[in-house]
Amino acid sequence: MTTLQDHPVSGGQMLPQLPVARRDSVWRRFRRASPFALIYSAAILIFYTIIFIIPFGTGIWLAFQNWDFITNPKFVGLRNFTKAFTDQYFWQALEKTILFSVVEISLGLSIALLFALALSQILGKWQNFYLSVYYLPVITPLVVSIYLWRWLYRPTGGAFNTLLSSVGLPEQPFLASPQQALWAITLVVIWAHLGTGIVLFLAGINDVPESLFEAARLDGAGFWQSFYRITLPLIRPVLVYQMVVSVIGTVQMFEAFFLIPGPGFSTRTLALYTYELGFRALNLGYGAAVSLIIFVMLLGATVFQLRRWKIEWEH
Amino acid sequence: MATTADSRPLPTPISPFRRWLITGKWTRAVVFLILAFFSFAMFYPFIWLLFSSFKTGADIVSLPVTLLPKKWTLGAYLMVMDPTRANLPIAYVNSIIVTTGTVISVLITSSMGGFIFARLEFPGRDYLFYFVLSTTMVPFLTLLIPLYIVMRELNLLNSLWGVWVPSIFSSFGVFLCRQFVYGIPRELYDAAKIDGSGDFGIYRNIILPLTKPILSALAIFVFLGAFNAYLWPLVILNEEKKLTLPLIIARMANRFGGTDYQAVMAGSVLVSIPPLIVFLIFQKNFVRGIALTGLKG
């Protein structure tokens, strides 16, 4: 931060002496810095150059090329991007991604909030017990959950259809139906991620000072009123944080769609599409372009959410 | 939430049941029961997983389907442990190597980074830190294809090194530890400095022991992330002997899925055990860790 102070934008009369003095002090500060810090900094810089700067640069370069891993890359200008806008598979994948993301987040976070609220009414020991049970699916490898649910979703002899027919409801095709497959997968992901939301929200609710609820009760506020007026505003930062993280997570969700293939393209999201373009169709340039579009969309969504939250927060 | 009604003196002749109704404790009992129901519903798939893994091949596909095995057998477990049929034991070793490597490297680099970025002075320190932090803005999916190309150039394809290398440092871990080190009094650092300790000595003897709470919380997140990782290992590894556990489950599902789904279930049970053990051991640290992170995550 000191380099910023050494660098006055205005105040021209200081300028002639400044370059010499500044170079001297930077050099001196480098000399004074401990080798430990400098070695670490060099290491972390090399690391992020290899796994971040070079790949990110390569990705941007690749998005303007046509490359199949074998022949030489060919520069195609913006064609990969214009292609995305006319590619019906891209739009289909985008639609599935948004549907999945919106439903997973709105439903998942609402249920998590409801559970956290209910759990906050329960005493310590049992609270921990329930929390552990709700957290189990988060700990279980997602691949395990996916194959387990695939087994339960089987149209004939699956646990869910057995349950449905035992209470007299018609059996459902679940994953075999283009209409139901996406929602069946969404349910698996909600189930798998619910615990995270519950733990975070409960920690937020438990942080709310007891005296606030006490005061609200004395003023005659009911449970829902004190939830709406006290709990919700106070855990809003946690809520927004979890929302931002969930958007980034759901858009990148891969395993569930890769390992539970719905009929046709009914469950092909952008994450799966990127993977297929890059590693199945070997259309690396187009795959890189699609993944860059995902990056821009996620960045936009994050900034939008944070800004909206800030406005509400100030208000 | 303590109910104020509890302390209010009640009219003397009243049955315990009526008191229970009046004091509003019944709402809590209802909430308790609803939670019990949902925790059972959430646990239900695991019950299927466990019981199915003890079934025989004929039993698991027979109709009508039953939860409990008709004949209990360990056949499915023997099937997946048999090296000629599934490479689960090798995958176990691979997963443990990659996960341990990742956890150890992230803990070391994060605690060092937290200390260095919070307490040590050198030119460009804050720029470097914000650069490291900003890398999280780019989703992994965007880096997937080009990172694969970089790994190919580095000759790290189809090796566990390739799985490990991108996760040596964790920007989230560095950020978390930096926040935590800011909470450690500066005087401790200054005093040790005056006593003639070098910066590495201070890190080793003062900072590392003091950051243990945040490191154990971080360790669980990193462990779960590395152990359960699917996409990156999928892209990097393809030789059967090099696969990690989540990948081998998918391979097993392709191999046994048609006729011997109980083998997939048995494999799944075995794969779920390490994360479960880690969670049970570090559960306390984990809950505390969430409170410590400040970010709640």
Structure description:
The complex is a heterodimer of chains A (315) and B (297). Chain A has 15 helices and two strands. Chain A has helices spanning 2-5, 18-32, 35-62, 79-86, 88-119, 124-139, 142-152, 159-166, 181-207, 210-218, 223-234, 236-251, 255-259, 270-279, 284-314; strands at 65-66, 74-75. In chain A, helix 5 packs antiparallel against helix 12 (236-251) and helix 14 (270-279) packs antiparallel against helix 15. The two termini of chain A are 32 Å apart. The chains are: A mainly alpha (315), B mainly alpha (297).
Sequence-ordered SSE layout with sheet pairings:
The complex is a heterodimer of chains A (315) and B (297).
Chain A: H1 2-5, H2 18-32, H3 35-62, E1 65-66, E2 74-75, H4 79-86, H5 88-119, H6 124-139, H7 142-152, H8 159-166, H9 181-207, H10 210-218, H11 223-234, H12 236-251, H13 255-259, H14 270-279, H15 284-314
Antiparallel strand pairs in A: 1-2
Chain B: H1 16-22, H2 25-52, H3 57-61, H4 75-81, H5 88-119, H6 125-134, H7 140-153, H8 160-164, H9 171-182, H10 186-194, H11 199-210, H12 212-228, H13 231-236, H14 245-256, H15 261-293
